[in-house]
Structure formats: C-alpha cells, structure tokens
Inverse folding.
C-alpha cells in the first residue's frame, strides 16, 4: 500500500476550505512569525498576527479529526527590549474558538549560535504548542521512548527499602514511585524538551526546521497511513518526514518557488532520511 503526498499552491485559508471535515490526523506547522520573513512572506505585524491567524486556525479545527492533534511551532519576538505578547494572545483566542491547549513542548536548539544583546542573551529554544479538539486524542508514547541511559546506572545502583515500595512522599506531595520497577527496563519515556540541532540538509529555505522535529511528533501522534497536514509547507520538511514514516501528507505553500521545489521533490523522490549522532537529517540525492 502506497502513501499519498499532495502539495497545493495558494493561501492556506482558501485551500483549507477544499479539505473535508474531520479528515486529518495530525497538523504540524511553523507559520511565519510576527514581523519575520518580510522578504518572502511579507511579515505579519505582531499587533495584527492574531487577527491574521484565527481564520486559518478555524479551518484547521474543522479539518482535524476529534482524535487528532495540532502542533504549532511559534515564537515571540522582542521589540524595543520587550517580549511581544502575541503568542499568549493567540492561545487565548484559539481557546475561544474551541481548541484545547493541552501541552507545550520546547525545542532546545543544541547548536544555537552564541551571542548577546544589551539586556538579554540569544534565544536557544522555541515553543511547540499542542492543541486538540477533545481530551480523547490518539497518542503513541511507546513510539518515542528513549534508552534509560546513565540514570539507571546511578539511581538504581543502591536501592533503599522505600525505593522498593509505593510509599507516601516525605514532603507530603502524594505517593512516591516504586523505583525498583525500573530495574529491568531498557527504555524510558522522554521529557517534553526536544534537544535537536538547527542544522538542516535543505538549504533552499530560510526557515526550514530539522527533519527529526516533525518526525518526532508524527511518530507520537499518528500510525502508518494516517494523514499529516502542514498548511505552511515551506521546504516540505513535514511532508518528507511523513512519507518516510509511511504517512499520507497534505501540504499548502503560498510561494510558487517553494511549491514547485517540494512538488518536484515528492515526484522524483529526491530526498531520503539518514540517522546521525544528534538525530535525523534531510538531504537531497
């Protein structure tokens, strides 16, 4: 059974109206941030961002299945030494639309360039906001488990008697865990902080994120042949990740240059996934 990958050229608000209701299992996207990408996407002002995005999020709410998830990669900006509040304002307005803000992941950029400003240091992280339509959404946590690592060698080396039972916490915060349950385990669940390098094999887009970023969420929230949507496809990273993981995918890109680049990549299969020490990377053949 072959997976299907589609890319459409146009404004996300318009193209989304052609998609069926409750047809998408996962949305992973990184729209232009406020006042960013002015040369390519025009740069939406921070005070207009919520107004611009709400018609898009309304359509995303319609096309997402009740069991689906929406992952939004977004970041505040700093103007005149002060953090903008447009991301917080967007979250509040999306909740009014009917979205549940269920979780927040942090992307730690391991290889962030050093630097400083008069009143702050360079950002080394970005937000990945998780939204859902209902509290009962699909989640496949075992798909993203990580090796136990050195923690097991130290913490589990000399167990006390209380480590072997489920007892009341010393600080009265509730029942503690039976630590001895981890003695025979090789894998553990990850945290909500993703440590990924910013490097990407695709250098043809100014804001491409690493392939492992959408790949991680695709593994966590979908199974094979589910449908993944990216309404701001850019260089097509989400679509390529979906195809590599045998998921159907739909992309929307407003700029014809990137649309043709992604369309040709899908058609000619001019991409592949390879594993490196710090994660996965995308590269053209």
């Amino acid at each position: 059974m072959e997976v299907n990958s589609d890319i459409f050229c146009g404004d996300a608000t318009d193209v989304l109206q052609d998609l069926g209701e409750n047809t998408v299992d996962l949305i992973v996207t990184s729209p232009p941030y406020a006042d960013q990408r002015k040369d390519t996407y025009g740069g939406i002002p921070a005070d207009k961002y919520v107004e611009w995005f709400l018609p898009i999020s309304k359509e995303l709410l319609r096309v997402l299945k009740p069991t689906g998830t929406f992952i939004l990669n977004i970041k505040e900006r700093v103007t005149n030494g002060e953090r903008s509040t447009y991301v917080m304002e967007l979250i509040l307005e999306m909740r009014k639309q009917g979205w549940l803000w269920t979780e927040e992941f942090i992307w730690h950029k391991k290889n962030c360039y050093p630097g400083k400003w008069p009143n702050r240091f360079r950002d080394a992280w970005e937000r990945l906001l998780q939204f859902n339509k209902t509290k009962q959404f699909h989640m496949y946590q075992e798909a993203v488990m990580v090796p136990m690592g050195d923690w097991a060698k130290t913490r589990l080396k000399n167990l006390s008697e209380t480590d072997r039972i489920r007892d009341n916490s010393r600080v009265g915060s509730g029942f503690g865990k039976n630590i001895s349950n981890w003695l025979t385990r090789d894998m553990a669940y990850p945290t909500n902080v993703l440590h990924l390098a910013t490097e990407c094999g695709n250098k043809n887009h100014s804001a491409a994120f690493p392939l492992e970023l959408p790949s991680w969420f695709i593994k966590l929230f979908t199974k094979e042949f589910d449908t993944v949507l990216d309404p701001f496809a850019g260089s097509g990273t989400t679509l390529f990740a979906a195809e590599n993981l045998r998921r159907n995918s739909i992309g929307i890109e407003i700029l014809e240059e990137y649309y043709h680049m992604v369309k040709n990549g899908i058609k000619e299969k001019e991409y592949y996934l390879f594993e490196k020490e710090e994660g996965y990377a995308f590269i053209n053949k």
In short: The longest helix spans residues 46-63. The helical segments are 12-16, 38-41, 46-63, 86-97, 150-155, 212-221, 237-244, 256-268. DSSP finds eight helices and 16 strands in the chain.
